[in-house]
Amino acid sequence: NKIDPVLEKLSAAVAHIEEVETRITEAETRISAVEDTVTRDNADLSEMKAKLDAALEKIDDLENRSRRCNIRIIGLAEGEEGTNPVSFLKTWLPNLLHIEFKNHQVKIERATPRSYTPRALILKLHNFQDKARILQASRAAGQLVYERHNISIFEDFSVAVVRKRQAFGNVKKLLRERGITFAMIYPAILRVQHDGVKLFKQPEEVAAFLDSLSKLTPTTSSGPNHPRETE
């Protein structure tokens, strides 16, 4: 029968197609299983990342708590503090800031030079009240000068907090140009005084706020009457 060879070929083709379909079904099943595994792994990774971020925040908070009584002095010429920085600074600071301490000295537990650019001295004060007085006097004094060097006094924060604060640099410049009063509060929140108090956690939020003001009022130049800021 002439048709038999054709039927045999068709039968073989059908069998091959069925085999291919079976393999495709198996492959789809395996792919689906892999996708499910990837989805679970991604969820696990997201959870682990969230836990890691939370742990890092706690560690950073602990680090900043350990720096609670620290201040950072920038601008003092290298070697100016001599071989005993604590002995030098405990009388130098009150004289520079014109503030009184018991026995005309501020209690300093330790003073550590750091090879930053610009050079910095990290001081750990005996108590937080002295730190607050020093920072307040520094802001009230404006630009401090010693031996023809500009001196700046800041709070001492962790690298993570400093970077977050530095991210506000551009928007703080724009706020100054508009004469808007602002201040950084711990850890890295910008407090803006304009038609009430506004708090911003991200520089982008401040930029959006300024954009909304630009539609209402033109930019004005401000005078040098803003309080000095922490880093």
TrEMBL record:
It comes from Cirrhinus mrigala (Mrigala). The keyword Coiled coil applies. Residues 10-72 form a coiled coil. Keywords: Coiled coil. This is L1 transposable element RRM domain-containing protein. It comes from the Eukaryota.
